[in-house]
């Protein structure tokens, strides 16, 4: 099995993975870290009430919600939602209930404001 394979993510397979601190109230499990100009792929786990401050996307970002609800200024995204954030777009992200998302970034985001 390739190093980058994770089993049964949509059925809760992420629950057995190791997560590390990412931001206050948000942990990360790297599936593929950024290397040079290669995209990064990870799982983010938000505690209830956690947020990521306003940021700009320096590359395309793709999110698939695996559990809970993730929100931004455009709405709330539940299990199975796929969210695409275009290059140059800006938003903040939060989860009132807690959530787990699969995320792929072409490039790291640029934080614009700290909450």
From TrEMBL:
Residues 15-103 form the ChrR-like cupin domain. Pfam families: Cupin_7. SUPFAM superfamilies: RmlC-like cupins. InterPro entries: ChrR-like_cupin_dom, RmlC-like_jellyroll, RmlC_Cupin_sf. GO terms for molecular function: hydrolase activity. Keywords: Hydrolase. This is Allophanate hydrolase. It comes from Rhizobium glycinendophyticum. The lineage of its organism: Bacteria, Pseudomonadati, Pseudomonadota, Alphaproteobacteria, Hyphomicrobiales.
């Amino acid at each position: 099995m390739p190093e980058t394979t994770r089993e049964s993510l949509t059925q809760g397979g992420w629950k057995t993975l190791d997560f590390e601190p990412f931001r206050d109230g948000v942990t990360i499990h790297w599936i593929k870290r950024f290397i040079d100009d290669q995209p990064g792929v990870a799982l983010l786990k938000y505690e209830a009430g956690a947020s990521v401050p306003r940021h700009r996307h320096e590359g395309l970002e793709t999110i698939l919600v695996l559990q809970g609800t993730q929100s931004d200024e455009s709405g709330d995204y539940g299990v199975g939602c796929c969210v695409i954030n275009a290059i140059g777009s800006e938003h903040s992200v939060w989860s009132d209930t807690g959530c787990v998302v699969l995320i792929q970034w072409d490039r790291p985001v640029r934080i614009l404001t700290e909450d």
